[in-house]
Amino acid sequence: MDIHDVASYSITPHSVPDRGCDHSDLEGKDLMHPAYILFGLFFLLIFAGVPIAAALGLAGTVVIAIAGLGIMAVPTSVYTGMAKYPLLAIPMFVLAGAIFDRSGVAARLLRFATAIVGQGRGSLAVITILVAMIIGGISGSGPACTAAA
To answer: Are residues 32 and 93 in the same domain?
Structure first.
């Protein structure tokens, strides 16, 4: 059985290659299979300097349009991929960390945790967990407090 037959879901008895070295079974095969177009266009865009996310989106959209799979599914898929509302908390936590760093709160928390734990072997991990627990408590996030505890 040939990998091209498996990919195109057309397995016929005459498609099983013999043990010889001739490649006559590749004659007449469709070299414009959507997978070839997808990967070829993706690598072409990557080598052209297009960012990876744009190359993935453009290559996928072109193959969907060429194969006639319903181009209106693309905007819906893009929106459902981005509309993960719990992920909106990540930039806010990054912003809170930047504010703590710029205002000096993070350095004070590190000094406080170091004063409680002390300096010694393995204390860096304990201090890090203690500071994460305090920041989770300050932010008011229940899962953050639970994860830090």
So the answer is: no
Does one domain contain both 30 and 62?
yes
| Residue of 19, 20, 26 whose CA lies nearest to 3 | 26
What is the Cβ-side half-sphere exposure of residue 131, based on CA atoms within 13 angstroms? 20
| Structural domain count of the chain | 2
Q: Would you write out the chain's pLDDT as a tens digit for each of its 149 residues?
A: 455 554 454 444 454 454 555 555 555 556 577 888 889 999 999 999 989 988 988 888 888 888 777 778 778 877 887 777 777 777 877 888 888 889 998 899 999 999 999 988 989 999 988 988 888 787 776 665 555 44
User: Which structure tokens are listed for 106?
Assistant: 């993070």
Domain limits for position 26: 3-83
Same structural domain, 71 and 98: no
